[in-house]
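Table 4 source record.
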Amino acid sequence: MNSQQINYKLTQLDLKAKLNEQQYPFQFSSIVIKNDSIILVAEKCNRIYILNKKTLDVISVINDLVFPKDKVSIEGVVLYKNRYLFLLDENNTAIYSYDLKDQKSNIKRIDDKSLKGNKYKLEGIAINEKDSICYVLHEDKSKIYLFDIGKDNQLKKRERINSINLPKDNIPWTRNTDLYYEKNQLYVLSTNYKKKQTDTLKYGISLFSIGGDYTLTYQNTIELIFPESFDYYRLERYSTNLEGLVKDSNLFYVISDNADRDNCDTQINGIKKTLFFKLERE
């Protein structure tokens, strides 16, 4: 596996001070950038947080979202037309659309139900707006499903090429957890996470170019090297997983879920276990 030649600086960002008083739900598996804001979607709490990108101050919290299905588990989110959030629900193998400009609007299911059978396996979502294509990532099959985006944001499984495979030899980790699309390229966030075995904390972001017939060609991998400030994570053997990725110019933001909590109750350790950081080119 080739290594990324450009050096990145990893900086941990403090969510505790910003979100503790907002009943921070501790599980975030998805993140997007909208203009000068960072949007975090709580995995199981039917809640969206909008933060100031520079200060991380909470601009607003959208509470009590009503989904078409019960017991959602939002594992991926992507912004479409700088207005709509496409939300990937792994528990119900569904994709929803939410209009940020009309926050009182209903959340609508937009997929064609062709993902049925992949429960607990869908982890990431990305969009090529130019060609109206939506990519959905399967976490351990190294497979990406392709959908056409149609009227009213409806997603339809592509007729000719509806899935592509990631070259496994280029991603030596055990799980693929998120996608980001940019200029005919896909960034894939991967991890070696195994429950209660996080002492190595080995993660990477791999870049693939998209060629004819949507074949993927491996370019390089940015291996995430954690500084000494993360030693408490290894020592305590915290069980978590990096699951949210977004690119913003020359830097990345990455956020983890927290396997310790499956509800929205506040907990001090939950704050400590949730990782949020940025990768900045040096």
